[in-house]
Amino acid sequence: MVLSNPFKQQHVFLSGVYAVNQQEVDDKYALIPIGLARELLDMDSTVTSVELALKPGTDVEKFQKQIQTKLGSNFKVLNRYQQHESYYKVAESERFFIFLILCFILIIASFNLISSIAMLILDKKKDINTLISLGLSKRKIGHIFLFEGWLVSFIGAIVGIAIGVLVCVGQMHFGWLKFPGNFAIESYPVDVRWPGIVLIFITVMVIGGIASWLPVRFLPKKFFELREE
Predict the structure, then answer these.
(1) Is the pTM higher than 0.85?
(2) Nearest Cα to Cα of residue 143 among 216, 225, 220
């Protein structure tokens, strides 16, 4: 008994090869005329989807709602994010966890600031006692060391952000970091955004402020008899 082939077949002439140098894409997709596709899939007049390219500056969400209202609930109107939602969620979660790792590294590094301020307080014990004798309060003395810690954090944040921006701009223009193997793009893509820079600056200042406050809060009580206001 000979079984017939359950798949529809059609011989076509190969006119060219389009490759993006990604195996999961190059081995999965083939571009054929729409007439041939309809014949193979038995879809003579059926259209499964329509893709629209919007002009720059168009409000995507507003346009999407307008199209959805006109077409009704029998059709799905999806933007690029919704069509690849799982991919974008993975990318967002990856960026979030990288930010958490960097925060953890920053917290570990802040112990150097804590120890530096603590040693400075111990080293300036005589000067602090002199200031106490002159009538300076505990709060004012604490503000001196707290301000120093904030100043160190501020300078470190400015210098670090400046170096980071310069490296990112250099990567965008010169492509220093290359992708190993064959990819659609040769160098690692970088995009500098102001909200990210502001978030990094605030994070550094908050962690630096806490690291400056800890020795100011606890060490004077243990080593010095400071006068309250």
Answers:
(1) no
(2) 216
Write down the pLDDT at residue 226. Answer: 44
Q: How confident is the model at residue 219, as a pLDDT?
A: 62
Cα–Cα distances in angstroms (integers) from residue 155 to residues 54, 102, 152, in the given order:
44, 18, 5
51: which 2 tokens? Answer: 């893709």
Per-residue b/e over 98-123, b at no fewer than 16 CB within 10 Å? eeeeeeeebeeebeebbebbbeebee
| Mean pLDDT for back-to-back runs of 10 residues, the chain (229 residues) | 66 79 73 83 80 85 88 86 79 86 90 86 81 78 85 91 92 82 73 88 91 78 49
The dihedral over CA atoms of 125, 131, 132, 133, expressed in degrees to the nearest 10, equals 110
Q: Which residues of 142-174 are buried (b: 16+ CB within 10 A; e: fewer)?
A: beebbebbbebbeebbeeeeeeeeeeeeebeee
